[in-house]
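I can't quite decide. Please look over this sequence plus structure tokens:

:::
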Amino acid sequence: MTNALWKSLYFATITGLSWCCRYDAGPGENPDIPAIAQYFSTKGRYEEVNPYLINDILAVNSSALQPPSPQCRQIHLTAIIRHGTRYPTAKNVKKMQDVYRVVQSSARGQESWLQEIRGAWRMWYTEDMDGRLVRKGVDDLRHLAVRLSKLFPSLVAEEKLRGGRIKFITSSKHRCVNSTLSFIAGLTETWAIRDMEVGHEVNNALMRFFDKCTKFLEEVDKNPSALIEVDKFKQGPEMKRVQEKLADRLDVPYNLITYDLVEAAFYLCAYEFAIKTVNSPWCRLFDKGDAQVMEFALDLKQFWKRAYGYDINSKSSCILFHDVFSRLDKAVSEHNSDREVTEAVTVQVGHAETLLPLLTLLGFFKDSRPLTSANYGTQTQRSFRTSRMIPYAANFLLVLYACGGDDIRLQPLVNEQPIAFPGLTDQEESMPLYEDVKRQYQELLQGCDFETVCELFKTPTEG
């Protein structure tokens, strides 16, 4: 990335010590990676989902695409992407500062890693960072752009970009705008483009639909009782044991360690790793069992607030759902009329809260039983794991293939890995006929009106 472009992005500078020591690596494990890194939920690195990227960040697995016929060719790609790695929000920074103060003032343990937290490590997170993209987040999107150009070379191509056939849409949040600019930079640097500016459109109606859905805001987002299962789990025996173990490691009274402090310490481990690739001494406060309990607590929150817990969670994404399918329909129509597909690629950058409701609406990652405060022990093999679904730079890709005549197929991928549409698992691996996909979602395509589903009080039908 050029210095000029970097300076044009609105980042707070990373300050504080970049801790060098390594912690908690088991035999045969990478000592630079926390043993609990795969449980960080929405604060996790993309590389933990696709570990092959650790050795080669630009590696792709083209064989995973496997169209049913050699004559199939890609005609359109929609990519809905979460922003890259970011700083913690001001709210979480406050909690992290709280747990740091407790450790500094009250911890009596003598372990070397605890002495390092109390001595050399400094609290460098400040509230004004408030969720802004970090340098690692810039690289997340730059590298993703390059990988998509390798996976879909006929679509994510220089001539398509120069011809205005790659469209960029983003949420207005700095971290999303800067992620979009970073994705664009990944392409322009790869193709050494210096003679043109690439624009983008800010569209919160599509990328922050959750802010506009009154029913969701009132019945879920602002309703404390909507997360009763989360509260129960935080007060349950599994979480109590995690709190006691953390208190034991710090050698402080049990009553001093609240759930918020445990979560803040977990986030300190996660952010130190995600932002600076540091296996921090904070990670020593948790073993694998603790991390799995923490992940379940965070999954519970996402399940009930953004996913299958309430119908309105997914229905709030109706506007994005229809936008996606209208674009796919347009591409198919243009192709069937022997016209050039005018929008070869659409890149839409938003949030975890953008992706999760849409994936839920489409039925992905749905387990046979809902997540509750009482079934942690039976949900160890659950599909709904946000650490796998929506790490930083998570992406949902929809690729249209023309395979001759009326044979148009649609392949979904999550985080660059093929996935089957629910209800269409028997069809040609993960590349069913587009018309079959539309039949599968016929009810949503004919309904799922954003204004109607988000209306808080329905107007009685006049008789």
